[in-house]
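Q: What would this chain look like folded?
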Amino acid sequence: MADIQVRVEGRVGRLTLDRPQALNALNRPMMEAIDAALVRWAEDDAIAMVIIDAVGDRAFCAGGDIAELYHRTKSGDLAFSRDFWRDEYRMNARIKNYAKPYIAIMDGITMGGGVGLSAHASYRVVTERSLVAMPECAIGLIPDVGGTFLLAQAPGRLGEYLGLTGARMGADDAILSGFADVYVRSDGVPALIDALIAEPNVERIDTFATSPPAGELLAAREAIDELFRGDDLPSIVDGLAAREGSDWIGKAKKSLQKACPLSLHATLRMVREARDMARLEEALSMEYRYTWRSLEQGEFMEGIRAAVIDKDREPRWAQPMIGDVAAADVEAMLASLNQNELTF
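A: My prediction, written as structure tokens:
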């Protein structure tokens, strides 16, 4: 298909996202092609390894095609988005549990659905062009595609910080936070892929890895842990408001002021609950409850309108203030879907 290349080279299954004009945003045909290939290759003894990368030097995958979800929902087709998320989350779990090495080359922007395609991989490569983030609170959603599970496993309180603010991580920060494993310069990636095709042995990756340029999170860890360990969202916001001086604190304040309050409250609860989960599937099921309801009961449609459709960057949230959201509101978004629960 036009938006993705699926082929076999030697003993390696190759997946290359090929939609650079849209920052390789993931649409349903791309997702279906990836999942079908993974199912097929899992049973093929001739395939020893899978590599996923992308065309272009700007993005690996900037996320799901949320504009399509918006237009489908506006037309009354809520099932399209719900089916997309259901099948996407199942694919995320397949990647996490894949029995063969699955190598993700996270070269460029890697956000949202792109994180789901890559950060659950067995081997995750970042470059100097990598920009990794889970910015869903800004569009009225929550860090999904298993994002709550990844954030919960980040050291200290980095999960709360990254999930609530959508802060962008370069290579060093992505490795520190557990979203990536090794750093390879972008000009070395073609040689790395060629080496893996010639000899599909994951140990070859280490021969191309080098130390990334220093990131920002290590120096800020102590302050992040202090400020984001608060019992609830208001205490975190108040703690940040009382702090001055650091560039990252100013950015965090601005992000929290503009993000969807309902999403922020839910994200904090979900990341903390995910710390007690043993399997990715548990977090994906929890996320699906929120995303399933987000089309009608949440703020997702308004978030997309402001960010992607009208592009005014001024979302008009139904609950515009942090204090407007009650615990019952979050509980309602995360309650069981009964017959609509996500299964694997």
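The CA atoms of residues 134 and 162 lie 7 Å apart.
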